[in-house]
Task: structure prediction
Amino acid sequence: MTATTGRAGRRAWIGLAVLLLPTLVLAMDMGVLFFAVPYISTTLAPSGTEQLWIMDMYSFLLAGLLITMGALGDRIGRRRLLMIGAAGFAGASLLAAAADTAGQLIAARALLGVAGATVMPSTLALIRTMFHDPKQRQIALGAWGGILTTGATLGPVAGGLLLDHFWWGSAFLLAVPVMALVLLTAPVLLPEYRSPQHGSFDLPGAVLSLAAVLPLVYGVKTLAVDGWDPLAALAVPAGLLLGGAFYWRQRTAANPLLDLALFRIRAFSGAISVNTVAMFAMMGFTLFTSQYLQLVKGMSPLTASLWSLVPSVGVGAAVGLGAALAGKVRPAVMMAGGFLIGAAGFAMMTRVGADSPLAFILTAAGVLAAGTVGTMTLTAEMVVSAAPVERAGAASATSETAVELGSSLGIALLGAAGAAVYRSRLDGTLPAGLDGEAARTAQDTLGGAVTVAARLPRRLGTDLLATARTAFTDGLHVAAVVGLVLAACAALLAYRLMRHLPAAVPAPEPAAA
Result:
């Protein structure tokens, strides 16, 4: 199929609804798991590092494979790749729900990441090929971005509802009926698209793109959580070296996975940078908020998930304001302002304590989320419109790689920083009377401390919870300071990268030109 021109009809809009279904599931997947962490800690007893891998394996594999899968979709067909990914995601979800050890759950999360990497670039690239009219495409991309926000909001609520009545594995079963519906409707409602320019598949580049991510993340997380480890210390420079090798490969390959020329388009490169930093800040802190509500405030998953809807009011306001200002205010001003609002939210988070009023942390989370989401209202349209339709797959995959890598690094690095502070604060301050195994469990994670406290005499358990919750909020403060500095620097970066862009980004010239 080749690109056409003209306005999209009713079939294209119904097809858009089909594309939004897997997008919704992928957006919900991480939020659903946030509130399952305490249950997973109790049932599977993962170590601190294993707990982080359960959270991160999905996103890091997804981020490492997006570019590869985007290029693969250009060759075998974007609809076909979407259907393969939908089937794989449903199967991996069943495996995750049935896992009875931390290792099995990590492996299932890895399969989910591989399947998700086939779905993500296909949805956005197919929107680019289905909607050629700029106004229609902007509406379609707005719906796509809105469904991401909706999924992130509904994920914790759906997870809370399930966990309030069923076991933790039920959180993974949400994806199965949705992906089955995609498999039934996609052949009828979605067009197939293959790039007219065929070339050999860059297998070395595909291997390098994944090999550069995993050792770097492993090294950073292990050093932060477990302290000095020779293997982890070697993994960090190894990941950086492999990243350099991937960059060199993309510069010299005849048919590279990633078209580096896209980064010379200011709107594209600026949007990619903003997406990465915004998702790092927002997703990195969402894990702290969900654990605070459950493990510090003692809420059930359902109650915590319902309270977590309150910050979405600020997010909705930010999205609406961004849409209203699009085309009227320069992107540099909007994005820099959003990051400064996010920095104010991080500053508020540094004042949160174990006994802080619930309204305070919810307000802080709302300000933080509103600022970071506000920076992303224009980025999807900027990325897709800045690249010609022939490069839509590469542009979509690169943008989503930045989003996933940013969110995953945020969870990993801010989570690792918080875990390191938690362990250091508890070192030597645990109440007397704990045996060695109980002390190690309590010092590993706050979830472990809550589990241990439930088995102790009332007075000893209360003392342990008070000490552990204070240590957790100390880690939260350190992560908030990191986020504050990052958001302030990102505001300056966004303004410098995009200060020359007009309020309305011009459409790209055809590739043939």
